[in-house]
Amino acid sequence: MIEKAPTRPADAVTVTGVDKVFSTGKGEVRALDGIDMTVSAGEFVSLIGPSGCGKSTLLRLIADLDEPTVGEIRVFGKAARRARVDQDYGIAFQQAALLPWRTVEDNIALPLELHKVGAAERRARVAELIELVGLGDFGEKYPDQLSGGMQQRVAIARALAEKPNLLLMDEPFGALDEMTREYLQTELLRISAETRAAVVFVTHSIPEAVYLSDRVVVMSPRPGRIDGIVPMQLGSPSSRSDDIREDAAYFEMITAVREVLHGGAPIPKGVETR
Amino acid sequence: MSSVSLARSTRARRKGTQVKRWLFGLLGLVIVALVWEGYKLLGPADGFVIAGTRVLPRTSDLAMPHVWDMFSRLFEPVTSAATARPLWLEVAIAATLTLGIAAVGWLVGLVVGIGFALIMQRWKPAEWSILPWIILSQTIPLIAFAPVVRSWGSRIEIGAFEWEDWMSVALIASYLAFFPIAVGALKGLHSPDRLHIELMRTYASGWWQTLVKLRLPAAVPYLLPALRLAAASAVVGAIVAEVSTGLQGGIGRLLITYAGQASGDPAKAWAPIFGAIVLGLVAAGSVALLGLILRKYRRSEVTA
Questions:
Q1: Which residues of B35-67 are buried (b: 16+ CB within 10 A; e: fewer)?
Q2: B212 Cα to chain A: minimum distance (Å)
Q3: In chain A, what residues touch B205 (CB-CB under 8 Å)?
Q4: What was the ipTM of the complex prediction?
Q5: Whole-prediction pTM value?
Q6: What does residue A152 show for φ and ψ, rounded to 5 degrees?
Q7: Cα gap B185→B215, rounded to integer Å
Q8: What gap in Å lies between CA B203 and CA A110, rounded to an integer?
Q9: Which of A93, A193, B270, B303 has the highest CB neighbour count under 10 A?
């Protein structure tokens, strides 16, 4: 008899048999259907798929911003709600969502302030984080004085303020231009290597998912379900650099993800895909 | 251009705009004076009468004193008595009393208005049940209930505390002032994005923390215009309440008294009117000062 393996506390996220149904005026919408997924501690996992595939919904469930209709989500072996209350994760959205009346420093300090971290410790931690995201001279600036990329870096620093072991990111670079985007991707690899946090990263860009991830979870819409999980055979993300973007193995991985995304069938050459 | 010289020229340009704004403000005053004197000079002596109703006033010195007469009258004594103070001083003293009462009314309105807004933000059913009454409250004419407030107030006596007439006036002023504050604050408290609310939720913040760190600061840009409106309302409310409760010493009383003397001294009746205008400007200006102190909360949000 094979015993069901107990949830190892080493896993950052375990999603078991999760359905999410939204009831709208026009009836019920099945946003997620039978989702099973595990993210190990320190692992970088991307969720990718066309819009409406429920990848953001899944992230919101992990963050306990919404509850699954059926199934269970555990974060570091705890219920998602407990993990949220215990501040086990940091989160960053597509918009930086900085408070406009707070300086960069005060924005990063917000979660620390809310959780009654002493002023001296707060200052030290903020200085550390500003250094980590490379915003050394901008601590006193207000968000409206920063570029979009810089605002997003502040948001990432804020997400890391309480040294979470899990970072949840919902298309954090989606609104940025391509150059800033590539730069921040490499920055994120460095940061996640330094902090050793697990990352769940929602994106609709295949190259972005491939470049960043240990594994890419490919999802499809109506109802949102997982089509396949593609491990990236590119070495650990922390050892990657921009050079890899021109590597043959990188393109192989992009092709692999695309094939799953398009229902397993090989994609004819010259066809435009997202 | 270096960033320093760019900043300097921006500052210089802003200063230039400031000066221009003052000049245009003054120009507005001059135009009003010119229209006044122009009509007085060229208009028919009996004014314009349409179907038995006078739509424009007589141009006599009694109905429309010269601008300079009204101005110079300010510096003459109030009465012919030897001890009489100059008119402007008498008006200023009365205006100060009214301003003080209006300020008390404004403060009470601030507390009550924000209190209502907080209750309505906290409990949605409260918003549905209270908001219509708040709006309805403003449809009751002031002069209808001013005497009622006064007569009720005169019966209040708790220990050493005795209700004084000026408190009735302040209460009526607060009745006008609380309305824009309640509505503005409610809108402001509701103003944060869903994203910010959810962010606070990920921090496991309760209602109070979310209020202090997010909702109240976000409400400031909505609150400031409401506070300015409330300041003007408090002044109007105080003056009207002074008249209708018969409170002595304020500018409302002067308006009535001097209007009664207008047949003999037409320019004098205008002095408390100017006083009331200055009063409103001072009240609104004080709120502008408050806006300056709170200016970091007025930064516009820029999304990535």
A1: eeeeebeeeeeebeeeeeeeeeebbeeeebbeb
A2: 10
A3: 114
A4: 0.84
A5: 0.80
A6: -65, -35
A7: 10
A8: 9
A9: A93
* Most A CBs within 10 Å, among B196, B197, B203, to test the A interface: B203
Q: Determine, yes or no, domain membership for A6.
A: no
Q: What are phi and psi of A13, to 5 degrees?
A: -135, 130
Alpha-carbon dihedral of residues B224, B230, B231, B237, nearest 10 degrees?
A: 180
Chain A residues whose beta carbon lies within 8 Å of the beta carbon of residue B301: 100, 143-144
Q: Residue B104: how many CB atoms within 10 A of its CB? A: 19
Q: Which residues of B touch A111 (CB under 8 A)?
A: 203
**A222 backbone dihedrals φ, ψ, rounded to 5°:** 45, 80
Residues in chain A within 8 Å Cβ distance of B224: none
From A159's Cα to the closest Cα of chain B, the distance in A is 10
User: Are the Cβ atoms of B214 and A84 closer than 8 angstroms?
Assistant: no
Nearest to B96 by CA among B250, B238, B239, B233: B250
- Residues A93-110 have a mean pLDDT of 92
Claim to verify: residue A104 and residue A122 sit in the same structural domain: yes
CA A123, A129, A131, A133 torsion: positive or negative? Answer: negative
Cβ pair B213:A97 closer than 8 A: no
- Give the 3-state secondary structure of residue B251: helix
Structural contact between residues B112 and B174, judged by C-beta atoms closer than 8 angstroms: yes
Task: Please state, in angstroms and as integers, the Cα–Cα distance from residue B249 to each residue in A136, B97, B159, B271, following that order.
Answer: 61, 7, 27, 15
Number of domains in chain A: 2
Question: pLDDT tens, A148-165?
Answer: 889 988 999 999 888 888
Report chain A's terminal Cα–Cα distance, integer Å: 45
A141 in the same domain as A170 = no
| Span B93-147, pLDDT tens digits | 999 999 999 999 999 999 999 999 999 999 988 888 888 888 888 888 877 778 8
Both A229 and A186 in one domain: the answer is yes
Domain boundary (A129, A163, A197) is at: A163
Cβ of B303 within 8 Å of Cβ of A142? The answer is no
- The residue range of the domain holding A177 is 11-88+165-261
Asked if the model's pLDDT at residue B92 lies above 50, the reply is yes
Non-local (6+) Cβ contacts of B272 within 8 A are B91, B94, B251, B254, B255, B258
